[in-house]
Amino acid sequence: MEEGARSCLLQSRSSLEQDIRASYLMDHMISDGVLTGDEEDRIRSKPTRREQAAALLELLLRKDNQAYISFYNALVRESYGDLASLLHNSLPLVSPEAEKSFSDGGTRYVQAVLSEGGVPQRPVVFVSRPALMNRVREKLYRLQKEPGWVTVFGMAGSGKSVLAAEAVRDHALITECFPGGVHWLSIGQLDRSDLLVRIQSLCFRLEQQSQEKDPSSSLHRPPGSLEEAKERLRFLMLRRYPRSLLILDDIWDSSVLKAFDIQCRVLLTTRDRSLAECVSGPKSEVAVESGLEEGQALEILALYVNRKPQRLPEQARSIVRECKGSPLVVSLIGALLREFPDRWAYYLHTLQQKKFKRIRKSSSYDYDALDQAMAASIQVLSKEHRELYIDLTVLEKDVKVPAKVLSVLWDLEPEEVEDVLQDFVNKSLLFRDCHHRPYLYYLHDLQLDFLAEMNRSGLESLHTKVVRQYQQRYSQGPPTSGDEECLYWFRFLTYHMAKANLTQELYSLMFSLDWVRTKAQIMGPAHLINDYLEYSTILDKEVRGHFQEFLSLNGHQLEQRPFPDVVQLALSQPDSSEVYRQALLQAQERATRGGLYLDWVNKSSLKSLSRLVVQPHQGSIYSACFSHDGTKIASCGSSKTLRVFKSTSGEKLLEIQAHDDEVLCCAFSPDDRLLATCSSDRKVKVWNVERGTLMRMFEDEHEEQVNHCQFTNTRRRLLLATCSNDKFMNTKLWNINKPSSQNTMFGHLEPVNHCCFSPDDAYLSTSSSDGTLKLWEVSSANEWKSIDVADMFSEQREQTEVMVKCSTWSAGGRTIICAARNAVFVFDVETAAMLLEIRTSRLSTVQYCHACPSSNLVDMTSYKMADCSGHLSWVHGVQFSPDGSLLLSCSDDQTVRVWETNKVHTSSAVCLKRDSDVLFNNGDITVVAADNRNRLQVRNGRTGAVMFQSENQESRICCTAICSQTSAVGLGREDGTIQVLEMPSGTSLATLQGHTRAVLHCQFTPEGHTLITSSEDTTIRVWRWRTGECVVLEGHKEQVRCFSLLTTTPSSETHLLSWSFDGTIKVWDMSSGERLQDLVCHQGAVLACDVSPDGQLFATTSADKTAKVWSSASWECVRLLNGHQDCVRSCRFSWDGRRLATGDDNGEIRLWNVKDGTLLKICSRDNKDAMDSLHGGWVTDLHFSPDNTVLLSTGGYIKWWNVEKGEALQTFYPTGANLKRIHVSPDFSTFVTIDNIGILYILKKVE
Predict the structure, then answer these.
(1) In what order do the strands lie in the sheet with 1207-1212?
(2) Which of 845, 846, 844, 842 is nearest to 1169 (CA)?
(3) Which stretches does DSSP call E strand in 258-361?
(4) pLDDT tens string 741-779
(5) Sheet with 783-788, edge to edge strand ranges
(6) How far apart are the first and last CA of the chain?
(7) Cβ atoms of 376 and 347 closer than 8 Å
(8) Is the model's pTM score more than 0.85?
(9) How far apart are CA 673 and CA 687, in angstroms?
(10) Fewer CB in a 10 Å sphere around the end CB: N or C, the chain?
(11) CA 1199 → CA 842, 1174, 1187, 1229, distances in Å?
C-alpha cells in the first residue's frame, strides 16, 4: 500500500473504529476479491463491533492499494460518506488516466450523482446483463434532446430495478444526457395520500439540494394537494433541474403515473407495458426477460460460493434450469450454498420435488421454484431467527422499515436487531437500502406473497403482536421524533390494528384528538383524511364524519408552520361533534394550568347544509353536471363509470361502464338527449341518455388523455368541443354525425385543461398549462384573442409554472372568468382587460370555477357570498343549475352535493358588515351591525340570534353605535344622514341631517345625551340628538375616519381629539366648537390614535411608518418611535400607561417603553410564514388585558400575546380574513368581531 494511503488510514483509525460496522463492509470487499472468507471469519469472531472494526483496519494496513480502494468504495456504498471523505485525497492512482474509479464501473462523479439522487447501490452479488443494459442506455440517449418516457417492463423478480439502476451507472450517459442529475423514486402500490407524501419528499429533497448549490433559493412549505405537488415538481424539474432524469421504480397504476406527466425525462419500471400510454410525450420500451441466461445465473452462484463458474459442480446447471433463471430465486439458493457449500445435490432435489404448493398460482412466474428456495432459506435459519423472520409477514409491500421498528416488534436492542437483519440480508431473504442512515430494510413483493400464503391462518395474530408490542413500548404516548421509525408507526399503526381486527383500539386511536394533532404535525393532513376513507367500513359513521369534517375544513391550517393549536381549531366544530367534546375537555384542563383557549359560542347560528348528498361511485368523482332542464345530474370519475340520477332525490336513472380508464368529464347536449364523456383512455364517447346506448366513439385523433368535453349551448348547430394533453392538436370540434373532427385549434403548446363555449356559441375558450387563456372563433377555428394569465403572477412566475385550470363565461358573454393557482380573474371579452381579481388563501388552489347563468355570482362579485362546507376531501368541480337556483359540487370523498344557492349565500356567510358596535352589560352582550342587504341588525351576543332587524335603508349603512344609557342605536349612512332607533321596537327617535357625504364613524358619549359623528366631508358634528341641536367642527382637509374623547383629569372638561388623512391631529371644545389645538403630526396620513388611561399622553401612527407619543399638557411630541418597515396601522396604551403597542401593515407588532421610548419586544418576527405576512394581513386593532400581561391583536386572524416575552399564546383563525376591529369585554373574557365575509364571532375564554 502506498505510504500516503497507509498514513491516512492510521490518522483516521480512531474515527473509523468508532463508527463503522465491519460486517456491512466485508461483503463488498469479498466481492471485490480483496478479502477472503477465512479473513472474514476471523474478524467476525471478535466479540464486539468495535473490536471487529479494529481487526478489519489492522488487516487492511497489511494489504495493497486495491484493498484501500475497495474499502473506500464500501464506505461510500454503505453511506459512510463522512468517513469516506477522510480517505478520499489519499486514494492511490491505479489507472493510466489517474481516474479513481469504482468497482461498480462508475467514476466518483457518477457515484456522487447517483447517491445524491437516491439511486440504489449495486447488489453485493451482481452479474452484468450487457445486452439488456445497452438497450436501456440506447433508449435513454434518445432523451438527450427532448423529454420522454423509457419503460422497462417485465415480470416480478426479473431484475428490472437492478437493471434501471445499472443503466444510469455510466459517466458518458450522465454527462451528455442528464447533467441535471438522476433522481430515483420508489413507488409501488400507493393510494392518493401516499403518492402525495412521496412527491412531497421528492420536492423537499430537490429543494434542499438546490439550496445547497444556491443559498439564495428558498424552501417552500409542502404542497397540500396532488395538483399543487405536480405543479411544484414540474417547476423543479424544468427550472432547477433541466435535463435531469426521473426514475420511477415499480409503477402499478396509470393514475399514479399521470402525476408525473410534467414534460420531463422519465425512466420507469413496471410489470404492465401499457401503462405509459396514459401520459404525453415520446415513448420507448425495453422488455426484460423473465430469467437470466444460463451463464449469468451460473456467474451469480459462482460469486456466492467464491469459485469460478467453470469449477461449479454439475448440479449447478440443473439448479439454474429449475429456477428458470429467476434472479431472486438464484440469489436465494446462492446464499444458502454460501453457508452450506456441500448441499448442491440437496437443494437441487428440493427444487425438483416442489413440495410447497401455493394457493394462488400464476402462469407467468415459477412460484414453485421461489417457494422451494424461500422454504429452504428459512429452514436453515436458527429457530429463533425463523420466528423473527415470520414476523415480517405483517409488512406492507413497497414499504421500507428501520431496524428500530423491528426492535419494538421483537423487543430486542437495536444492535441485536441489526445483527439479525444482517443474517437475513446475507441469505438474500431481505434487502437493505443503504442510502438512508439508519438503514432501511424491505422484502421483495414475491417474498411477501410467500410469507402471506405460508402464514395465512396466523396473519391476525401477527398483526396483533405488532400492536401489543407498540402499546407496550409507547405506553406513555406515541413517538414524536419525526425519524423513520416514528413515521412508520404514524403511517401503519392503523393498518396493523385493522388487520388484527382490533376494532376498539382502532376506534380509540382514530377518534382521538391527540392522535390527529400529532400525526398531522408530523405527516400533514393528507394521510389522516385518507385513513378515515380507507377504514370507513369499520369505523362508526357518525363519529367518523365528525373527524372528517374537522380535517376537511382545517386541512389548510394543519399545513402551516408554525403548527397551529389543534385544540383551538377543534373548538370551532359544532357542539354536537365528538371533536368539539374532546377539545373542550382538553381546553378546560389546560386552562387550569394557565392555558388560553377561546370557545366560539355563537357558531350554532351558522347553517351551511347541502340539500342533497349522493354517493354515486366508488372512488373519486372528477366531474358532475346538471341537465339543461335541471331535473337530472350526471357524474363520472375514477370508477370508469357514468351515472345519471334525479337532482331532487338522487334516485339512479342510468349507470354505464363508460370507459377503460378514469372518466374525466361528462356533459349533456342542449336537448338533454345525449351525454358526452371523455377519459384517460384517450377516447370520446357520446351516449343516448334514455337508452344508455353508445351512439358514437371518437378514438383515433387524441393521442393523450382527454381532459374536458362540452356541447354547444344552443340547439341550432350541435357541436362538441374536446381538449387534451396532446402537444399540438389538443383542442378539437366535432360534428357528432361525422366520424372525424370538424376542426382542430392550433396555438397551445402545453396540455389544455378545459374548454367552454360562449353563451351564443360564437366563441370557445380554452385554458392551458402554458399559462394562457385563449378565445377562438367557432366558425373558423381561428384564434381570436389570447390572454397571458401567467403575467398576473409576475412576482411568483419564476418559482412555479402557472397552470390555467378552467374558464367560464358570464351570462351575457361580455366577461370571462378563469382560475389559476389561488386566484380567479375576470376579463372583459372585447378588450381582454382584467376587471377583477379574487384571491383565495395563499395555501389554496382553485380547482374549478363556474358562473351562475342567472345572476352575477362569481363573475362580478369581489367578496365571498357563501362558504359551502361539507365535502371531506378535495373538490374537483362545481356547477350552477341552468336557472341558478342550485349548485352542485363533486369531490374525492366520493360524493356529489347539491346546494340551494339562495340559502347558502344568505345563511352560510351571515353577511354582516365589519363596522359594528358592541355593548357589554352585566353579562349580556348586544351586537349591532349592518347586513349585506343594508338592514340594521341587533343580535344577542350569547347566541347570535337576531333581536331586531330594520327595513332596507335607502342609502348604504356605513357605521353603527349603541347607547349604553338608553335603548337606542345610531347608524350613519352614505348619503350623510344619521338615524337613531329605539330598541327593540325599531321606532325612529331622530333623523339627523347635515353631513354632505358618507358618515364614517359615530359614537354616543357616556351619559347618552350626545352623539358625535365624523364624515368624508371633512367635518365632525356634535349632536344633542333628541333635540337636533348640532355643533360643527370644521378644519380638517381630508376625511375624518375616527375620533376619541380626551379627559386629562377626572374633574376637567372632556375634549374631542380627531385625526385625518391630512396628517393632522386637532383638539376641540365640544360645547363651543372651538379648535383648541392643531398639530401637524406626520408626513403621511394619520391612521390611528390612542389616549393613555390617565389622559396625560396620546399616541399617533401614520402611513409614514412612524409612531409618536404626545403630551396632553404641552401638546408636544415627547417620543418618536422608528423601526416599522410599513404603514403603522394601529396603537394601544397598556392600562398602567407604561407600554405602547403598535402594529403595521406587514403584520409586525412592536412593544415600546413609554417612559423612554425604547423598544421592548417585537412580536411574531420569528414566526413569519414565507408565503404570508406576519399576521395574515394588516394589524388593525390592539387591546391589553386589565393586568397588562396579555396583548390581543387582529389582522388576518386574532392572536393573543404574552407581553413580557413577546410570544404568541393563542391564535384563532376565522373562516374569512381581514378583521377590522375587535370588541373586548371589561374583564377580557369575551371578544366580538366580524370577518370580511360577514361571519360574526363571539369568543369566550374557556375556564
Answers:
(1) 1181-1184, 1190-1194, 1198-1202, 1207-1212
(2) 842
(3) 265-270, 283-287
(4) 999 999 998 899 999 999 999 999 999 999 999 999 999
(5) 752-757, 763-768, 772-777, 783-788
(6) 76
(7) yes
(8) no
(9) 8
(10) C
(11) 19, 11, 17, 14
